[in-house]
Amino acid sequence: HLSLLRVEHDRETELNSENLCISLQVLLPICPSFSGLVVLLLLQEGCAYKLVCYFTNWSQDRQEPGKFTLENTDPFLCSHLIYSFASISNNKVIIKDKNEAKLYQTINSLKTKNPKLKILLSIGGYLFGSKGFHPVVESSSSTLKFVNSVILFLRNHNFDGLDISWIYPNVKDNTHLTVLIHKLAEAFQQDFVKSTKERLLLTAGVSAGRQMIDNSYQIKELAKDLDFINLLSFDFHGSWEKPLVTGHNSPLRKGQLDRGTSSYYNVEYAVGYWINKGMPAEKVVMGIPTYGRSFTLASAETAVGAPASGPGAAGPITKSSGFLAYYEICQFLQGAKITRLQDQQVPYAVKGNQWVGYDDVESVETKVQFLKNLNLGGAMIWSIDMDDFTGKLCSQGPYPLVQAVKRSLGSLER
Questions:
Q1: How confident is the model at residue 21 (pLDDT cuts 50, 70, 90)?
Q2: 319 part of a folded domain
Q3: CA torsion, points 262, 267, 270, 273, in degrees to nearest 10?
Q4: Are 232 and 246 members of one domain?
Q5: Do 247 and 202 touch, CB atoms closer than 8 A?
Q6: Total domain count for the chain?
């Protein structure tokens, strides 16, 4: 029986905590006499989850108390940190200024404190858009130049992997994305064989919208090459919609009034759709936002689906209309009326003509229980710099949302 529990270690087959967890669950009924050993192993190795935390390079430019610097970050807060976003010029990853160079040095200091922390570099994002990737994929030579540049950059700056946030490929681009990911995966494997270091990780930030999923991704192919996906399961509703009515940023489940395509705009549907299309559940890391989407109400109606005249007022720190960081939401909640949506399992708040749908400690705990029930790979936070990282604005201690997610996950990958 004990031989069944033996795991061979070599450079080609690394111990995978999810596989170990599944193996032990299978072995338990087979070897009941070893149930104590199994429980002990589970406690030691854990059915470990990823806690993937994005942080943005523009958050350091915000005014206090929203100015976020990595020096103040707990290196044990997350299992994975993703720096967003790196710059590309002439199909090569570049350092665009002195601040960025300093940031990379700080990243390394976090790993000195916690050698097991995985730090990835993300390329892409909303501003970079789809056009930013077109020069990279226009020819095999440009792709090769990019891939070689990525490996050199990641190794030189002591990163553990790459996150591709192509937002978003169209139907014509989805083959380009598949090829790019495949070329990166092949090159990472070749680099691993030649080097003495661990293999570089390869992940992707992906859409949670059904139409985008259908158009943008060859999921079964991506599943072969990606270590995991970071599902952007938020921005389901916002001030860009027509007709403009209030809606929650990241509802866990569909609302009672959702009909037709509206029933797709929730976390549960998006997660299920990705899995049904071929992405293994253990490779799905579910996004949880530390911000809300806001609206200016057009009438006395305040429920979900109430008419809105435009985006909500900009926050005092993030200064973006229709958008509030959690540390701004905490201030907004003083004197506001809070309603918890029983169907969607998330809260919204109203004060005057301002309406904001957001996540709080209770809703993120519910979301984590949901992802654990589905045996997903873990939770992703967008982003740690919008949580109350100082602990001064929400009176819930530093990083109240991230800490709630971490507590609920239990054992993190190490």
A1: low
A2: no
A3: -110
A4: yes
A5: no
A6: 2
Same domain for 62 and 33: no
Q: What range does the domain containing 82 cover?
A: 49-290+361-409
Token readout for 212 is 């985008």
Please report which confidence band the pLDDT of residue 170 belongs to, taking 50, 70 and 90 as the band edges.
very high
Q: Indicate the pTM of the whole model.
A: 0.89
Residue 69 belongs to some domain of the structure: yes
**Kindly report the CA angle at 207 between 168 and 270, in degrees rounded to 5?**
155
On whether both 32 and 132 belong to a single domain, the answer is no
A 10 A CB-CB count for 84 gives: 22
- Tally Cβ neighbours within 10 Å of residue 251: 28
Whose CA is closest to 308, among 245, 239, 235, 242?
245
Give residue-wise pLDDT tens across range 31-85: 444 444 444 444 444 579 999 999 998 999 999 999 998 887 899 999 999 999 9
Q: What crossing angle do the helices spanning 400-409 and 361-373 adopt, rounded to 10°? A: 30
Among the listed ranges 20-24, 45-49, 161-165, 229-233, which one has the minimum average pLDDT value?
A: 20-24
Residue 97 and residue 173 in one domain: yes
Which two structure tokens, joined as six digits, stand for 241?
A: 């919609």
Nearest CA-CA partner of 264 in 210, 311, 213, 224 = 210
Residue 5 has pLDDT above 90, yes or no: no
Structure tokens belonging to residue 153: 């950059």
Classify 403 as helix, strand or coil.
helix
Residue 348 domain flag: no
Could you count the other beta carbons within 10 Å of the beta carbon of residue 66? 22
Residue 17 has pLDDT above 60, yes or no: no
Average pLDDT of 159-173?
95
- Ranges of beta strands (E only) in 90-218 are 92-94, 118-124, 161-165, 201-207
Instruction: Please indicate, yes or no, whether residues 18 and 55 belong to a single structural domain of this protein.
Output: no
Q: For residues 82 and 163, is the Cβ–Cβ distance under 8 A? A: yes
Any domain includes 381: yes
Cα-based distances in Å from 408 to 114, 122, 286, 301, 327: 21, 26, 14, 35, 21
Same domain flag for 271 and 241: yes
Residues 25 and 86 in one domain: no
Q: Hunting for tokens 């809070």 — which residue is that?
A: 338
